[in-house]
Design brief:
The complex is a heterodimer of chains A (378) and B (158). Helix content of chain A is 48%, strand content 12%. Chain A has 378 residues and is an alpha+beta fold. Chain A has two domains: 49 residues, no CATH class; 276 residues, Cytochrome-c3 Hydrogenase, chain B (Orthogonal Bundle). Chain A is globular and about 65 Å long. Chain B is of the alpha+beta class. Helices cover 24% and strands 22% of the residues of chain B. Chain B has three helices and seven strands; from the N terminus they run H-E-E-H-E-E-H-E-E-E. A three-stranded antiparallel sheet of chain B has the order 3-4-6, with no helix packed on it. Chain B starts with a helix and ends in a 5-residue tail after the last strand. The interface between A and B is medium-sized, with 29 and 25 residues.
Amino acid sequence: MYTQTEVIKDTTASGSEGELVINMGPQHPATHGVLHLVITLNGETIKKIEPHLGYIHRSIEKMTESLTYRQFTYVTSRMDYLSAHINNLACAMTVEKAMQIEVPERAQVIRVLMNELTRIASHELWIGAMAMDLGAFTPFFYAFREREMITEIMEDSCGARLTMNYMVPGGVMYDIHPDFQKKVKAFVQQFKDKVTEYEDLVTNNVIFQSRTKGVGYLSKEDAISYGCSGPVARASGVSCDIRKIYPYEVYGKVEFDEVLDTAGDSFARYLVRVKEMNQSIRIIEQLIDNIPEGDFQAKTKAVLKPPKGEFYTRVETARGELGVYLVSEGGTTPYRIKYRSPGFSNLSALDHMARGSKIGDLMATMGTLDLVIPDIDR
Amino acid sequence: MFLKEYIKDVYNGVTSLLKGMRKTGYYFFHTKEIITEQYPDNRDTLKLAERFRGEVVMLHDENNEHACTGCTACELACPNGTIKVITKFDMTPEGKKKKAVDTFIYHLELCTMCNLCVEACPTGAISMAQNFEHSVYDRNKLTKRLNKPGSKVREGVE
């Protein structure tokens, strides 16, 4: 990490004969947040990319040390805001693991349903935003039409559209809305009807294909050594789906395929995400009619006090593997919390992927990495 | 060979463009399938979900009575110090001292609508309202007093 003065020195020093140093961001429409990339160019060819972080650092990990175990889950909605449910779930699961709380079956099924809806919503937004980065404006509206149905379902059941705070230690905050099953079924039908539109507009589009095929190649070995996870690693052939390897909640009982591709380029990452949405639909279809009766929340004490020790849980968010490392001293607040966020590791591979390519291709590479900046910076 | 590739590229480009334009044409003539929220115009008929979390309110009945006992459970549950409950001691008819709420201060500008205070309330005195248009010209207007002046605790609420 450079300090501000070093940046200035560095930019002048590396700007040797024929080289150009440009700053992309922190206010740039294609970075979808306050990401600052210092790009060294030789003509149009990228020599080096240096991400500078810290523009949206809210010290969530430090803040957590002064919050109780009931309070700290809600803050994680602000990390990866597109998979807020899954972040909350990871925190709730850590506390449950530490206190050995048995979550009722009904709550587990609701959690998985909400997680998969979140995953689809996140990928929908990503398709729209990435297509817009590459110059196609219309897919954004089509993607948001379906995403709007999910946010309405979330609003009905959870009370919020983006930062839900629905997963609490012991289960879920409320029972599902009476209309939940009906609305989810309507959404599944709508999604199945309309997913062909994405194929027509984006997948089969010649301009889109030629801008993404062979761009931003990441080999399997590099994906592992950079610690990539989620669709980025799976597009390079790394089998890393936490839902499959370490099943949590009811993921062990449902049938779904881990989507893998071996091409490792931007187009493969695009295809993996589109296929993942179909797998999420498959999980939802299996569970939506089989929500068991029972409690939606386990009975817990008013003040949670996990025993002394260290606990680690991981979940598969829409972007990859999220790990929560909790050190408890036996008190009402955590001693230390560390989040292993997927975006940070995925961003670290950007320099390797983009080096030697043209600056126009950087948009495709960055777009398919699916970066959410608050998740990288926390 | 080059010419063949070139013609193929042009053909593919034109067909994929036409495919996209067909979708655009379809929605041009099927205007009912387009969903747009006419937001500021439909304000009167706008229906939000019943669980939507807009702001914290204290429920008062027609006798200007609420269910808040001043236990400060919400204040302890709040992660950002949004709620401040100032308590006082009322005298009961039997001559005993009883804790009661004097002023229930709610800082809307600090609230993240996480619903933890409503969950923590043992008597169901506070709940979330659906009002979401909170913009005002003066920041001080966002600090609210939730218990109405002259209100008191409902009989039988412990």
